[in-house]
Design a protein that fits this description.
Blueprint lengths: L3 E4 L3 H12 L4 E4 L13 E2 L1 H9 L3 H5 L32 E2 L2 H14 L3 E3 L4 E6 L4 E5 L2 E5 L1 E4 L6 H5 L6 E2 L4 E11 L15 E4 L2 E9 L2 E8 L13 H12 L4 E12 L2 E3 L4 E2 L2 E3 L5 E2 L7 H20 L5 H28 L6 H14 L2 H12 L32 E4 L11 E2 L9 E4 L5 E5 L5 H5 L2 H8 L2
Parallel strand pairs: 1-2, 1-9, 2-5, 9-18, 20-21
Antiparallel strand pairs: 3-4, 6-7, 7-8, 10-16, 11-14, 11-15, 12-13, 13-14, 16-19, 17-18, 20-22, 22-23
Helix pairs in contact: 1-4, 1-7, 7-8
């Protein structure tokens, strides 16, 4: 019997499939679409997500497909001050730009190489729960599993089948996202993929962000200020994109082709619980928010990195179900915080700002030039400052652990590190050289966060009672 069914073969679902298959969990991904959509979509991988991918050896193949980009930081509300992540002790301080379908291809290749299976053209049409598991009707199959994880997007079929509310606030605008080709361009069209503030132009009530993808290819994002969210289902036409380009970039900018196009809105919603019985929610199925700062794809993939190792540990009898319950406890607040900061950006980034908002932008821009303010926002937007409320007295517990060899985590298991020879030999810890800024001994979770730490006189009872300790023993 399949142990876990994952609904949705986007970045969140495929990341989860990689994590589960790495742990030896029999995993099946069901995807309603027959083929992967080759659209750039959300293709910004933030520094923290890059760190997590590196822990599993997935960053290098993704970097190999990334688009050429200036080494410049991310943004807050598209204001013209780059966010500086170099102060956060990371090897990956700049966002990585890559089309979403390329990310999915790398992840699917890894998941299937590890034994995971992906079924396309297999929509979920029914979900039945019992005390022991879940049964799913997908395509012409009835599939039983211990758990189902809904990673099937903002319009989640699983969420609707279970009758789950999706509370929040409706959107305030609709915009177009398209991959286009231009036969000629004016001098106003950006030539390199730099900071977002250099890619965006506003003329009257039109705004367009044009990102060069190489050759004649560009990613077009744009709209008309004040267009209602109700227009989201209207088909995108060649002429409306061509007209927007003429108005914003001049008559010399000529649209040659539209490879694909869709509309999106800026609604903000989050399910009340990331777990309902034996069904879990991750990615856009759990939360949607305004598309500011390249947060969505990263939030979903980080959901998957949090859930995967916990679910595997429970299924393999190495932890009680209490561990998988911490998924909601840790990731629901993380999602809520992203909803909070993206809504704040919506006000600042309004393409038709009031006089008060214009003044607020100037004040906020000046604040972003202050090192401490910039560091704070960089940590939020990159995910590098995020931490979990994990029991423990040491200040590092619950925070990401920087400066370690990422190859220690390729197996997706916890790692106990003795950096100063303070642990008894029979604990069989990994001995390593001291690292500046890190305590003398650390138990690091599979997702790179500290589960336990000590500088001197380590509390071994607290260590051996930690859930990650049981996982560590089971992996030996």
């Amino acid at each position: 019997m399949t142990e876990v069914i994952v609904a949705g073969a986007g970045p969140t679902g495929l990341t989860l499939a990689c994590e589960l298959a790495l742990a030896g969990v029999e995993t099946l991904v069901v995807e309603r679409l027959p083929d992967r959509i080759q659209q750039t979509k959300g293709g910004a991988i933030q520094p923290r997500t890059q760190e997590l991918l590196e822990l599993r050896g997935l960053l290098e193949p993704i970097q190999a497909r990334a688009m050429a980009r200036e080494p410049v930081g991310g943004h807050f509300a598209m204001l013209p001050v780059p966010l500086d992540c170099t102060v956060w002790d990371t090897a990956h301080p700049y966002p990585l730009s890559i089309p979403q379908w390329e990310i999915e291809e790398v992840l699917e290749e890894r998941a299937t190489a590890l034994g995971g299976k992906v079924l396309r053209d297999t929509p979920v049409t029914a979900v039945e729960q019992s005390d022991d598991g879940v049964a799913v009707i997908a395509g012409d199959r009835r599939i039983e599993a211990r758990y189902l994880v809904a990673c099937d997007g903002g319009h989640s079929t699983v969420r609707k089948l279970l009758g789950m509310p999706f509370p929040g606030r409706p959107g305030t605008f609709t915009a177009v996202l398209a991959d286009v080709r231009l036969s000629s361009v004016s001098d106003l069209v950006p030539k390199t993929l730099g900071h977002i503030s250099t890619l965006t132009r506003e003329v009257d009530d039109r705004w367009v962000m044009l990102a060069p993808l190489g050759g004649d290819r560009y990613r077009f994002t744009g709209g008309v200020a004040g267009e209602e969210e109700s227009a989201k289902d209207r088909p995108v036409t060649f002429e409306e994109i061509a007209e927007a380009l003429r108005i914003v970039y001049g008559e010399q900018t000529v649209l040659a082709a539209v490879d694909n196009a869709s509309r999106f809105g800026d609604a903000t919603r989050q399910v009340d619980s990331y777990r309902v019985g034996n069904v879990f929610f991750a990615g856009d199925a759990a939360h949607i928010h305004p598309p500011f700062g390249g947060q969505g794809l990263n939030l979903g993939m980080q959901d998957a990195f949090n859930l995967g190792w916990k679910m595997a540990a429970v299924l393999q009898g190495q932890a009680s179900t209490d561990l998988v319950d911490t998924y909601h406890a840790e990731r629901h607040p993380a999602g809520g915080w992203v909803l909070h900061i993206t809504q704040a950006q919506r006000a600042l980034a309004n393409p038709r700002p009031s006089a008060d908002v214009i003044e607020l932008r100037e004040v906020f821009t000046d604040l972003m030039r202050l090192p401490e303010a910039n560091r704070h926002l960089a940590g939020l937007m990159s995910g590098l400052s995020h931490s979990y409320n994990v029991p423990g007295d040491h200040p590092l517990v619950g925070h990401r652990v920087a400066g370690l060899d990422p190859s220690l985590f390729l197996a997706g298991r916890p790692v106990l590190l003795d950096l100063a020879g303070i642990l008894p030999p029979d604990l069989d810890a990994t001995r390593a050289e001291p690292v500046d800024g890190l305590p003398h001994a650390i138990l690091v979770r599979p997702d790179g966060y500290a589960a336990w730490a000590a500088d001197t006189n380590p509390d071994l009872d607290t260590l051996t009672n930690n859930p990650c300790w049981s996982l560590l023993q089971g992996s030996r």
